[in-house]
Amino acid sequence: MADFDLVIRGGTVATAGDTAPCDVGVRGGRIAALGADLGKGTREIDARGRLVLPGGIDSHCHIAQASSFGLRTADDFASGSLSALMGGTTTFIPFACQHRGQSLRQVVEDYHAEARGKSYIDYAYHLIVSDPTPSVLGQDLPVLIRDGFTSFKIYMTYERLRLDDRQVLEVLDLARRERALVMIHAENHDVIQWLTEKLLAAGRSAPKYHAVAHTPQAEREATHRAITLAEIAGVPVLIVHVSAAAAIEQIRWARAEGLAVHGETCPQYLFLTAADLDRPGFEGAKYMCSPPPREAANQDHVWRALIDGTLDVYSSDHAPYRYDVTGKLAKGPDAPFKTVANGVPGLELRLPLLFSEGVVTGRMTLERFVAVTATNHAKLYGLYPRKGTITPGADADIAIWDPARVVTVTAALLHDNVGYTPYEGRRVTGWPVTVIAGGAIVADEGKVLAEPGRGQFLPCGVPGPLARMTEAS
Ligand code: DUC
Ligand code: ZN
Ligand code: ZN
Q: CA-CA 20 to 30 A from 444: which of 6, 116, 146, 333?
């Protein structure tokens, strides 16, 4: 009789803390043992020459979500989770998005119905709170937080989602009382509106002007204000999709003041630039997201902040809209930039892009890669140590990487429903060739070996910063 259901033998295991040659024994869907020369497994994987990493956690993606203009994202829980899985991500945390007037509890029920039977990977939800009425703050949110929805995103811009400063304070105060984590989209709404109106009045309506309207100063000011409001409310906060060097400086300042301010960035701020929005014709629309990709020189600042710990997590902000009338072209091929759906896809390439440009180049350690792609997400959102690491007792969610595999990216290779990738034609080195979720081999050499619906809903615990997480890994 075998000792384990599965043994991954001869690989190099990396966590956020260490890298070492080590076998991994899996039993009952969990990691049962780490060590040299483990006993026999019913199944065995020869991982010689390979890296054995925790499956990625993508804690910022928009799946089966309706925008405030009524457009629906191109990916549902089946295509989105499959795309994540094939890129080495084994847990994702999309949003259950409340539009104004909607009951938050009903919104959560609706997303549960969307995900059930479809997701290939385990999932949790953040809530998007756009209507913080007294009953939402006093009744719905406290109950939802206790049910495992312990993080929520709020917006300082977007006409139909944004909260004013007083509402932001009220949400932060509730988060402090109930031990939840607030994620803030920090851009100054009035600045963006004012610049947009001036640009459009001058006939500057092409996609490239989106990056002009969403100026870095608007991000810097709102980041500072978000930090200040969290300081006044006395609660940790996470600034999501940080793009501008000037916003990063605000986070550094806050940390130096001893404030519990966390930061997230995304592939589009490391690998795309504002020049991508100026591609011929209307092609720039494919690269439009908020905040937008910045000038080329800005990328270095984002890299440094992700490497030195100023930014804690690296997520995709996968917000998939096809380049057709269901998405980017809904208002026509010449629509003014302000009417084009915001968002870029990135679930599947998030990890390979960072591995190739970060780890393979020697810019980022393997341990830091694991921290910003998996471990810190689990800690931040109360899923650690069940998720995000390789340790006895953790779920056996593992991506086995061939660190030398060279892949040329093309949309046809990907499993989302977007039809294009902003990273078309790039060559990446390193690829997650075998993916294991809950102890089962769910993907191998490009083949999908799992069924939709195997993924389970994960209630989140107390977010790390609220549980006094201070450790920087
Ligand atoms: N910006 C967001 O805030 N959300 C989704 C996509 C985007 O570009
Ligand atoms: Zn956002
Ligand atoms: Zn987003």
A: 116
User: Virtual CA dihedral for 169, 161, 265, 211, nearest 10 degrees?
Assistant: -120
In a domain, 326, yes or no: yes
- The CATH code of the domain that includes 240 is 3.20.20.140
Residues across the chain: 473
Q: Residue 412 C-alpha to ligand 2 middle, in angstroms?
A: 27
Q: Which atom of ligand 1 is nearest to the CA of 290?
A: 8
Q: What is the mean pLDDT of each run of 10 residues along the chain (473 residues)?
A: 96 98 98 96 98 98 90 97 98 96 95 96 98 96 98 96 98 97 98 98 98 98 98 98 98 97 98 98 98 98 98 98 97 96 98 99 98 98 98 98 98 98 98 98 98 98 78 43
Ligand 1 nearest-atom number relative to CA 289: 8
Residue 85 in any domain: the answer is yes
Domains in the chain: how many in total?
1
Shortest-distance atom of ligand 1 to CA 158: 3
Ligand 1, residues at Cβ distance < 6 Å: 62, 185, 289-290, 317, 319, 342-343
Q: Note whether residue 356 is domain-resident.
A: yes
